[in-house]
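Comment thread on ticket #2218

A.B. wrote:
> Attaching the input chain for the structure job we discussed in standup.
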Amino acid sequence: MALSTPTLRTIQEAQRALLAPLRRESIDAWLQDVVGSVQSVMGADHAYAVLPDAEVLRVAASDVDDGFCDGLRDSITGMEDGVFLFDDPMPLQMHLYRRRRGSGAYHELEMLDRPTIEASPLFRELFFPFGIRYAVGLSVFLPKGEAMICVGFESPDADGYDPAALKRLELLVPAFESAVRQHQRLARTRTQFAEVVDRVPAAVAFLGAGGREEYCNRALRRLLSAEPESAALLAAVRAHADRPELDDEAGPVAEEPLRLAGGVYHLRLGRAPASVGPGWLVLVDRASPYPPTAALQDRLGLTAREAEVALLLARGHSNREVADALTISPHTARHHVQSVLGKLGISSRSAVSHVLLRDGPGP
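C.D. wrote:
> Ran it. Output below, let me know if you need it in another format.
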């Protein structure tokens, strides 16, 4: 097979993209890069990729409307013995054919004849309306499902639809297979890492590149559930690992106090272990003179919402600020404030702080 220099260069670029799942900020970003690269190799009109990942089916597309991705996810009705299930027998036949053959590059006419493909409800209702009338692709089989990249053409005369052009895709199979296996290993390592972090008594978040939240351990989830301004706390945790001055050489960042209704928080940043890929660990320490919301509920007979309101009042928040912090209406906030004052047996909101401090300090 003789390939021109531009074609070889395009194939090399696609191979580099395929082999870089851990160098992108997320697996979705990598999948999007890969789709465009393989589309370029084949000179296709459209392209899409499917990657089963834990309980999520990741789908990326190039020159295809988002509605196609949603329809493709919906077309897979389940999984049994590692096999995708479809309501339409035609895609199931193709899936089973590739599963028997194993990882490789495939032309649709290897699997089924054209009249059978065109009679498929799925192809008539989903693929054809989005311009994917003729297709070739590469596939890597997994214990559950398959990872695949498919390129589509609007005409059977397209150069990339010629069976001889499948040789180009075959050159990409080893790189795609290596990348998928690499991602699987990383996913298993991250699952194990999350289980370890979950047993840590300190509140810890694991964030990927750009402050993208990967995991909050059990202690941090409890802390967030007890914090009236939990959205602000989580946003601060994300922002802590999303600063331009951070790079691969950055060391631990000093504590930064954050004052919220539930307490004063100190966020400390450290690099995640290399084995779980690029990322940061954020340790969240809570320091507050007031008890947490769960203690206020138990000791003062407040509801969970009233405990949140009591902490906000103790810090001098107005009714409008209470409403904004809890994303409720001013009328609802006023009602909760009156209820809190009544249950605490006081008439002044300025006395709330005294009652909470008298009731005992938080951890």
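A.B. wrote:
> Thanks. Noting for the ticket: The chain has a mean pLDDT of 86.
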